[in-house]
Each structure stands twice: as C-alpha cells, then as structure tokens.
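> tool_call: predict_assembly(chains=two)
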Amino acid sequence: MDTIELQRILESLLFAADTPLKLERLAEMTGQDRKKVRDVLERIGNDLESSRRGIRLVEVAEGFQLRTPAESAEWVRLLNSTRPFRFSRAALESLAIIAYRQPITRAEIDYLRGVDSGGVVKTLLDKKLIRILGKKDVAGKPLIYGTSREFLELFGLRDLSELPSLKEFSELALEEEEDVEQPENVASGE
Amino acid sequence: MALEIKIDKFEGPLDLLLHLIRKNEMDIYDIHVAQITEQYLKIIDAMQELNFDFAGEFLVMASTLIHIKSRTLLPIQDDEEDTESEEEDPRAELVRRLLEYKKYKEAARSMEELPRLGRDVHARKFPSPEVDSEEETEFEEVGLFELVAALQDLLRESPPETFHEVDIERLSVTESLNSILTSLSGRQSLAFREIFSREPKRHEVTVTFLAMLELVKMRMVKLMQNGSHGTIWIFPTVDEDAVHMEISEDALGYY
C-alpha cells in the first residue's frame, strides 16, 4: 500500500467514523504499522491546517477525529436549531475539580467548593462527563469520581495531561491576581 | 464603602469571601477578619431579608468567621514555643481553602475557553442509535389500568348491536387462545389490536381478551408497552415449538 492509498483510506475512515479513532485501531484496520499511519495522519493534519480547510484533524480522547475549526463555528451553528449546552458556573467548577483532582469523592468536592455539589455531580453523571470509578476504601465506602472519555472529547483534549495547568496562587502577587480577576467581573455581570 | 452585591451570583461562601477580599483590596494572606466578617454578615442578613433560598453553608461560614474573629481578638498567650503560635494563625485554614477554591475557579474559567465540541468545533453528527431502537428497547410492563383502558377503547369501538339475531355465534376462549398462539407463531410480537378482528363484536372482545389474560396467566406470553399510553404488545415468552401446542377445549373451564 503506497502512501497515497493509505492517505485516502485513512481520510475515509476518519470521515465515516462517529468517534475518535485510535492510532492502534487505524493501524490494525489498514494493516500498516503505527509509525507509518501516524506519519500519514500528520500529513493529512498538516495539509488541512496549512491550506486552511474547513475541516481539521484533531487528536482527542487518545484518538483522531475530523472536526471543523473554531473559525467556522458561527456558520456551522446555523445548521443546528438547538443551542449548544452551556455549563453553569457550579457545573464547570465541579467538573474542573473532578478533572484535576480525580479520583475524588463527593465530600471532597463539597469541601473544596464550600457548598453541596450533589445536584451538579448528578447532572455531570447524566451528561456522561464524569463516571464512577469505584468506592473509596474508607468508612462509608463513598463513591469516587473521575472524568470520562466524553469529557475529553467535549473539551478537545487528547488526555488529562492536556488540561490547562493550574495556577498556584501562592506564587502570585496580589496585583497580578487583580488583573486576572477583572475580566471575570465583566463576564459575570452579563 | 457601599456594598452592592448580587447574591445569587455566588457559588458559595468561599466565592463570596473571595469577592469581598478583592473588593476590599485585601491581601488574601492577611485578611482583616473583623471587616470581612462584618460585611459577610450584612450580606447574609440581606439574603435572609430577601427570603433568598441560600445554602446552609453560608451560615456555617459565618460561624467560622466569627470564630476566627474571636480568636484573633484574644491576646496571644505567652507560649513556650514561638513556632507553635505561628502555626496557629486562626486564619490559616480559611486562607488555604480560599486559595484552593480560587485555583479551581480559575481552572474552570480556562476550561470554558477550551474549544468545545458542539460550540466552537464540530464533528460529524450521526443519528444516535437510541433514536432508532427506542421503540424496541424502551418497553415497560403493562399495568392493570392500561390494560383496562385498552379493553374499554375496544368496547367503545365495537358497533352497537342493532340487529336481533338470536343465533349467537359460539366463541370459545380456548379457540381464541389457540388463534392468538397461531398468530404469534413465527412472529416476535403482536400488537394488542391485532388479536381482534377489524370490528369486533362485544362478545368477541370479551372472549379474546379473556384468552389473552389466560395466556398471560399461563406465562406463555407477556404484555409490554412502549412507554406509558404506548401500544401494548404481546410477546411470546416460550420458544416457537411450545407455542404450537394445542389446548383442549375444556382445559380452562370456560363454556
């Protein structure tokens, strides 16, 4: 199989798939070694990127998927009458805590946020963004939560290491914090 | 300073405290507990006045603040060890929590910026498989009232008996039962209406309905429904061969 052919097949597979495809799976399906598949994927990605095409190859949830670039969002949204799901601040905060601190129990989330998070955790479970990882081996055997593959897909992350790095505020000066805080005031005042 | 605060905007007491600290331009490591507590309590009061349905956690934090305040007001006892008194800054635990919370609040904000699927970037959409298979998978057991309602519907539709024939057609439950079984053979399910003729007469409805109930009782079929008020379906519970068995006329005791 030459590169052109492999490229064609990979593109077709990516186009027809409904979830991100893992490199291993693509290699298995095409009968090529991973290195070669990865090279061709990279080429496809670069081609789409450099010629500013309407679809891009992204690496999400440890797989590859064709997605439209953010610059087209405005138009793509015209296709859908439904408005995209918006997170409440509580939901996003809880999701952030779970993402960065997993595995984590409800009680720990509650403590970090200073409020009861039961309802929010349930919503996140319903949306399949988090999942129950098991039970913690302490008194009461509380459930422990972590993020799901859907979470990575939603936020376009290859894996958890791609989460934005946490700012450690102990190293920040107060003035800097002020700067960071300012835009939030505007945003939350909407 | 005037306090203009929209209380429903706060995710919790920690959020509110962070806001107050920022508003008062305080150093988070050097919170003036007395001042913050005073403002915090004012807001709590306002919340109560507005009958705002606020979380009990706000009260817990209020008592924590008052507790810290009382401890900072107490003269520091002459300790033998200086290090210990330093460790015991009553605000330390609160500051730690505030910083920790702030960290995740910021993280949530950065996550908001990430290119989100369905908002910023889009992948191809596929009809979700649930939509297609919903009809088949979302069966519920039929409740008694649903069944009665279905029977009543049928009876209502049956034509009024206007003619005066005395010659009553004899229908037996057993016959009707066997005919349901025959219709069921080779099929996965039968709609409730299918076991009746197009315009069933009252006695046919009764007999067929009884036959169906007999089959349920014999555990040869089960009744399932698509959601509430959905179509009632009859499913055989036994394998094909058993469905073919014939039941003798007097086995059920109907005449």
